Amino acid sequence: MRLSDIKNGLTGEQKEKELGIWKEKGYEMPAFDIQAVREKTRKDPTWIHFGAGNIFRAFPAAVLQEALDQGRYDRGVIVAEGFDDEIIDKAYRPYDDLSLLVVLQSDGSIRKKVIASVTESLKADRTFAEDWSRLVQIFTAPSLQMVSFTITEKGYGVSPADLEKGLQPDLIMGKVTALLLERFRAGAYPLTLQSMDNCSHNGDKVRQAVRAYAERWAGQGMVPQAFLAYVQDEAKIACPWSMIDKITPRPDAKVQEILKADGFEDRETIVTEKKTYTAPFVNAEETQYLVIEDKYTNGRPPLELGGVLYTDRETVDKVERMKVCTCLNPLHTAMSIFGCLLGYDLISAEMKDEDIRGLITKIGYIEAMPVVTDPGVLNPKDFIGAVLERRLPNPFMPDAPQRIATDTSQKLPIRFGETIKGYMEKGLDLDELVLIPLVLAGYARYLKGIDDEGNGFEPSPDPLLKELRQMVSGLEIKEEAQDFSCLERLYTRKDIFGVDLYAVGLGTRIEAMVSELYAGKGAVRRTLHKYVESR
Predict the structure, then answer these.
(1) How far apart are CA 174 and CA 182, in angstroms?
(2) Beta-carbon neighbour count of residue 164 at 10 Å?
(3) Which H helix or E strand runs over 77?
(4) d(CA 181, CA 450)
């Protein structure tokens, strides 16, 4: 069984017979005429996506397939890659742009679905003249409605050196701006630039990058001022916000073994020179959310048919705050700190630990819920329920507390500081907070780099790690009394915790918890159990 065996046009009795073996083995096949969709898309494209990585195939492309399978849309998506050309050469074109989505379900089972919504794959690089010519053709098509991105937050960067390269920049947002110039020259047609990256107010990052190039070019007389006005006109070029949430790990060995047993041959991991890990298949968690500001200037594909939620900007912002400040990210950070201290290397394994599970369950449902931002379109309690019951316990997900602990000092002010501020703004009693202070106390023990068995470990990378570790360098893991006054330097840092924890009345209590966590071997487990049980 190979993806190349799937011929275009999945219709008719003969085709059903040819593909019967796939269905017998539980593979969900496209329910639309692939060739017809490809021809329509080539002639009148509506959507091009930049970023050919795993998240694209597992989420946006799969969402579009839902609309195609329902027979309620007739155009596919074209993908372009501007960072790692090898992805196109090794993971797309050898398989006729088809891929296999393997959905990793929390009960240990999987779903297997052939994704055929991608109609073309292109390299966003002028070095490949034919591909670049096709990109120009796509961008100048009046039918084009949306240009979307999953290029990571760094992909929206603009460097002075790239701005100096004029109309032939190397960075992806510079290339997109150059392609917008082609669209302007062809008729100044409207278009929406839609970030689908997991970063706050992502549409603003797109807008700022495009305008930076346009302003430089117009200022130096390389393009008419009318082009700058075109990209600045939000009735012409819109950049909506979105919130995306889905995990797509690297190709998993357990999945590869399952596919091997099926006789599916396109299962080898591909590692490019730029260290991109991909494959002809994508494994991804079952839970997913994509909430988008419905601000489109030239229409859009009907992605709501695949579960995308369209709403206004304020609601997108509320969904993001709900996730980041209450329902997911704080739970991750709490697990990462105590997971490292208790010797875990898998998040799913931590969920079998009653103390850790109790910690995050009570943080979410009891301590953070009184100040949660309720966006209306997603229920916060349901969101947390999915996190606790389906996402974190998923045995297929190879996520580790050590990875999540990266840059913790940069995450704490949002993930916990905002909840503390929320209590203060609403006049709630901060004495009701027990487990959130415990997590902040756990951070001081984590910084020491000694686990609960007395073994050393290397804390995850963090821009402030060296400075913060120095603050606890005088503390020892021992039962004897010691001076914890050094902690005042740490817990007064508003840049790390969002507030001065002593000034708001939590510092002394956290300091006492730290003393318990440092009280010799096994102190982390004893202290964690004590406070989780008491809550």
Answers:
(1) 13
(2) 10
(3) strand 77-81
(4) 56
- Where would I find the beta strands (DSSP E) of 89-173? 99-104, 110-115, 118-123, 146-149
Tokens of 65: 């397939």
Instruction: Locate all alpha helices (DSSP H) within 387-506, ordered by sequence.
Output: 401-404, 408-412, 418-425, 435-446, 465-471, 487-491, 494-497
pLDDT tens column, 307-353: 999 999 999 999 999 999 999 999 999 999 999 999 999 999 999 99
Query: How many Å apart are CA 48 and CA 86, to the nearest integer?
Result: 19
With tokens 């209450």, the residue in question is 326
| Helix, strand or coil, per DSSP, at residue 413 | helix
Instruction: Give the β-pairing of 270-271 and 277-278.
Output: antiparallel
CA angle 516, 518, 522 (to 5 degrees): 85
Using an 8 Å Cβ cutoff, are 511 and 483 in contact?
no
pLDDT in tens, 358-371: 999 999 999 999 99
pLDDT value for 9: 47
Residues with Cβ within 8 Å of 274's Cβ and at least 6 positions away in sequence, in order, are 83, 84, 86
Q: How does pLDDT run across 96-141, given as a tens digit for each residue?
A: 999 999 998 888 888 999 999 999 999 999 999 999 999 999 999 9
Neighbours of 409 (CB within 10 A): 18
Residue 6's pLDDT is what?
80
| Alpha-carbon span 147 to 121, nearest angstrom | 14
pTM of the shown model: 0.90
Contacts 24+ apart (CB under 8 A), 472-480: 472/444, 472/447, 472/448, 475/444, 475/448, 475/518, 476/518, 477/448, 477/450, 477/518, 477/520, 477/521, 477/523, 478/518, 478/519, 478/520, 479/519, 479/520
Among 507, 341, 345, 521, smallest CA distance to 437 is for: 507
Q: What is the rounded end-to-end Cα distance, in angstroms, of the chain?
A: 54
CA distance 139 to 380: 39
Tell the residue number behind the tokens 């997971």, with chain if given: 339
Residue 123 CA neighbour count, 13 Å, CB half: 17
For helices 329-341 and 354-362, give the axis angle rounded to 10 degrees. Answer: 150
Tokens of 464: 């402030």
User: Which regions of 4-71 does DSSP assign to beta strands (E)?
Assistant: 27-28, 47-50
β-sheet with 289-293: strand ranges across: 242-245, 289-293, 309-311
Spatial distance between the Cα atoms of 52 and 217, rounded to a whole number of angstroms = 28
Assign 251 a pLDDT band (cuts: 50, 70, 90): confident
The CB density around residue 438, as the number of other CB atoms within 10 Å, is 27
Give 215's contacts (C-beta < 8 A, 6+ positions apart): 228
Contact 240, 294 (CB under 8 A): yes
DSSP letter at 521? T
pLDDT score of 7: 62
What number of CA atoms fall less than 13 Å from residue 418's CA on the CB side? 19
Q: Please, which residues have CB within 8 angstroms of residue 448's CB and are 6 or more apart in sequence?
A: 469, 472, 475, 477, 518
d(CA 305, CA 307): 6
